[in-house]
Specification:
- A 10-stranded mixed beta sheet has the order 7-6-5-4-8-1-9-10-2-11, with helices on both faces. A 4-stranded antiparallel beta sheet has the order 13-14-15-16, covered by helices on one side. Strands 3-12 form a two-stranded parallel ribbon.
- The protein has 482 residues and is an alpha/beta fold.
- The chain has 2 domains: 344 residues, 3-Layer(aba) Sandwich (Alkaline Phosphatase, subunit A), CATH 3.40.720; 76 residues, Arylsulfatase, C-terminal domain (2-Layer Sandwich).
- α6 packs parallel to α7.
- The longest helix is centred in the middle third of the chain and has 25 residues.
- This is Putative sulfatase.
- Its cofactor is Ca(2+).
- Belongs to the sulfatase family.
- InterPro entries: Alkaline_phosphatase_core_sf, Sulfatase, Sulfatase_N.
- Keywords: Calcium, Hydrolase, Metal-binding, Signal.
Length: 482
């Protein structure tokens, strides 16, 4: 089927009545922090013990639901892809962070959450890291967003500018050995609007990253106020840069806590969240706005920016709990009770389906969508999650599977820089009695193979029915006939 006809057919299906009985579709705000580990926020056992209290975020947690078993994918690109498509990233060819120079990103065949909401009359905007396509044809303004200000790829690249000079990030190496812009061009912060050519605003470097979150907040809050005044529902997606390495605060926050750059950055993160929340209140839309604050990954693995993952062992880029579990807070006044805490399994793919239904949109039916609607859990209508488990891929390797309180590992990799080791026999952990995944309980519990392998088998069967898109697949992409 022609890709444009396919999109028109999808849009024609998005006339369902609004879900959950609300009088008007909710505004949706997602604040996604970059590699914010499980144990950083005060509401997750961090805050003051990490050198900075987080009062605004902690108050948000008291006003809605806080999840202790919210799961993401192992890397930045896979998690962002899962959030915006409702599909495990192995399906869409976005299962690893792309390397500079290689084809990357979502095919335009994918239907992003922004596209679903735009079809329902939402204004849509993204401020921050995209990481789902570094070519202009795959920028967010070609995939459902009306406006964007941010970077196409990753913040690692800001360190290029520190590789040939004395800095607190890398040792002086000399210009011949260091980064040369003539060999590898600088990366840029972009501004783009739908149906317009994007523009390069300024270079992405150490200095511009320090002030980026302030800019993202300023632009996002202006968007909120503008659309609230116009009475137009909006989707504001704010993937902040902090605390992604190099974890350096805005100059206004440098030295604020007296506890170093990490604590100063944590204080800034709390402040930026507060600014967004204040904008919603000032615009008079606080009561009809669904707010999510979450992280895309577990904490950084590299010293001195290593994150605090609470009780969990490991790092991101692995299927250890420290790589999968991330903070998640959701507030929706009148729909989600205040002060609720749940340890039920929720996966980042579930946000796609849940938010689409909250806005009165239907998810596509011509492809595999892994996300399930979790609003009954969030609202307190039911105690249990609508999912019992999920397969955990690290890049394109099926590394583990979670089912209820159990975790079965097929590949052992504790930390990002460890070599993945295929296990001769899977290792089984009870995540209630062994938070650090140290005691293999497979002997005596081989019964667990049946339900866990049913999760794996069901997923692999769906890959047969809906073959995954290979990484680097160009547009236009059309699935093979089934």
């Amino acid at each position: 089927m022609n890709i444009h006809l396919s999109r028109l057919a999808l849009l024609a299906t998005l006339s369902a009545p609004l879900a959950y009985g609300q009088a008007a579709p909710p505004n949706i705000v997602i604040m996604l922090y970059d590699n914010l580990a499980y144990g950083e926020l005060g509401s997750y056992g961090g805050g003051v013990i990490r050198g900075a209290e987080t009062p605004r975020i902690d108050r948000l947690a008291e006003e809605g639901i806080r999840l202790t078993n919210f799961n993401v994918e192992a890397q930045c690109t896979p998690s962002r892809s899962a959030l915006l498509t409702g599909r495990f990233s192995i399906r869409s060819g976005t299962y690893r962070v792309p390397r500079a120079g290689a084809p990357d990103g979502l095919t335009l065949w994918e239907q992003t959450l922004a596209e679903l909401l735009s079809a329902r009359g939402y204004a849509t905007g993204i401020w921050g890291k995209w990481h789902l396509g570094s070519s202009e044809a795959r920028f967010p303004t070609h995939q459902g967003f009306d406006e964007w200000y941010g970077v196409p790829r990753t913040y690692d690249e800001v360190m290029w500018s520190g590789s040939d000079q004395a800095s607190d990030l890398t040792p002086a190496m000399g210009s011949k050995q260091g980064w040369n812009e003539n060999l590898v061009p600088a990366q840029y912060i972009y501004e783009a609007r739908k149906d317009e050519a994007p523009s390069q605003v300024k270079k992405l470097d150490l200095a511009s990253k320090r002030t980026l979150d302030a800019e993202l907040t300023e632009r996002a809050t202006a968007f909120i106020k503008r659309n609230a005044a116009a009475g137009k529902p909006f989707f504001a997606y704010i993937p902040f840069s902090l605390p992604h390495m190099p974890t350096q605060p805005n100059p206004e926050f440098a030295g604020k806590t007296g506890n170093g750059s990490w604590a100063d950055s944590l204080a800034e993160m709390d402040h930026r969240a507060g600014q967004v929340l204040d904008a919603l209140k000032a615009a008079g839309v606080e009561q009809n706005t669904l707010v999510i604050l979450a992280s895309d990954n577990g904490g950084e693995a590299t010293y001195p920016w290593r994150g605090a993952n609470g009780p969990w062992r490991g790092t991101y880029f692995t299927a250890m709990e420290a790589g999968l579990r991330a903070p998640f807070i959701l507030r929706w006044p009148g729909h989600v009770p205040a002060g609720k805490v749940s340890n039920e399994i929720v996966h980042i793919v579930d946000l796609y389906t849940t938010l689409a239904h909250a806005a009165g949109a239907e998810v596509p039916k011509d492809r595999a969508v892994d996300g399930v609607d979790q609003m009954a859990l969030f609202s307190g209508q039911q105690a249990n999650s609508n999912r019992e488990g999920f397969p955990a891929y690290v890049a394109d390797r099926l590394t583990a599977v979670k089912w209820r309180n159990w975790k079965l590992h097929f590949i052992q990799q504790d930390e990002m820089y460890d070599i993945p080791q295929t296990l001769a026999f899977p290792r089984l952990y009870n995540l209630l009695t062994d938070l650090r995944e140290e005691h293999d309980l497979m002997i005596g519990n081989t019964w667990i193979l049946k339900p866990t392998m049913e999760v794996v088998g069901g997923f692999k069967a769906s890959l047969e029915k809906y073959p995954p898109i290979e990484a680097g697949t160009p547009d236009p992409y059309t699935p093979a006939s089934r």
